[in-house]
Amino acid sequence: MGKAEDTKARLERAALTLFVARGVAETTTKEIAMAASVAEGTIYRYFPSKEQLALDLFLRHHQGLAEALTEAQRPAKGLRAKIEAIVRCYCEWADRDWTLFAYHLLNQHSFLIQVPDGMANPVTVVRDVISQAMKAGEIPKRNVDLAAASAIGVVMQAATYKVYGRFTGDLSDHVRFFADAAWAVLSVKEK
Amino acid sequence: MGKAEDTKARLERAALTLFVARGVAETTTKEIAMAASVAEGTIYRYFPSKEQLALDLFLRHHQGLAEALTEAQRPAKGLRAKIEAIVRCYCEWADRDWTLFAYHLLNQHSFLIQVPDGMANPVTVVRDVISQAMKAGEIPKRNVDLAAASAIGVVMQAATYKVYGRFTGDLSDHVRFFADAAWAVLSVKEK
DNA sequence: ATTTTATAAGTGAGTAATCACTCAATTTCA
DNA sequence: TGAAATTGAGTGATTACTCACTTATAAAAT
């Protein structure tokens, strides 16, 4: 890794850690610089602004996750298998870089509206899979967004609880449960 | 309503609306005052600081919701009925004052650690109900926090989607589905 | 090899703007 | 008429960002 790239990576990691620990607005450029062992001015050699740095970090993870989920579910046949593939991929992303994952999870509200049109999107991937399965008659037809939200919530709220420290250990340890639970949610029948 | 109480209520409502629309850190005291049609200084006759105002709003809803959930589930017999009572109560709170609800939902990260020990807590209520049901053998035994997170996620993620505008209409319209889905999550068997 | 030159990387004091909060003066109203 | 409520200009502190300058790196010329 070149010197410049190393500096940029150090800045991103320092910012990430602070953003998760104290929030984006509450983190100062001086703190980021100190944590990365550079002067404040150096930040602006690599990023046009603090906000852009924060957005870059978000979008990179957002797009990367979306593409990984797309690839993960593609070879799987049938909704049940696709769900498991998606859940496994998601949990592995979370466990691989928990700080980045937590940052993405905690700051969706701020950045989701700034996702460029056409950029790969984790939510869309899941929605499309569910929509297909409804058309194919694999699960009961209902409001797709509602069903997707509830199914996704099964995993995301567990991840959120881990961020809050309410439970510990790898998310991946619970892939089977999450997949079964999401499947159960989507299979709920109108009575 | 007295004049002072009216001013205080207007300030709270103005702050709430702005906090949801733009975030707490991004909302200035000047904006809050303008939205409430008072001078900036008036804020400080009713609240010691902007942060305390934000915390007050959060804690009042947090505690109110926890107490309502406790009452709602008490008379219900059996987990299935308790779940439905909890879900219905939660959705009604959301629909009754959506701005306050959205504020609470979007700012848990910042305020949850500041909840005083012993204060009624929505999460604890649900956790206890699930824990009881596991002990009673109504549902399979597993990590209570994990199960609670996934069950709660079914409803909370749907609420989050509504905040993002991904779907519209009252949450209460889907109580039956949420309850069925949460029940299905908790009933998932180890294989 | 040594010096010169060019470019990239890094620095940190300084700047302009913002913002939460104060307080002396004014208005409201019982 | 006195207490309570309100006002808004003022204050001190903070902060994102700039920029003139220094240092490191490497290529080119001698």
From TrEMBL, chains A, B:
Write out the GO MF terms: DNA-binding transcription factor activity; transcription cis-regulatory region binding
Q: Which residues form the HTH tetR-type domain?
A: 5-65
> Where, by residue number, does the polypeptide cross the bilayer?
none
Q: Which residues bind DNA?
A: 28-47
Answer whether the UniProt record assigns the keyword Transcription regulation to this protein. yes
Name the UniProt key words of this record, in alphabetical order. Answer: DNA-binding, Transcription, Transcription regulation
PROSITE patterns listed in its UniProt record:
HTH_TETR_1 (PS01081), HTH_TETR_2 (PS50977)
Cite the InterPro entries for this sequence.
DNA-bd_HTH_TetR-type_CS, Homeodomain-like_sf, HTH-type_TetR-like_transc_reg, HTH_TetR, Tet_transcr_reg_TetR-rel_C_sf
Q: Does the keyword rRNA-binding apply?
A: no
Q: What is this protein called?
A: TetR family transcriptional regulator
Q: Please name the source species.
A: Reyranella soli
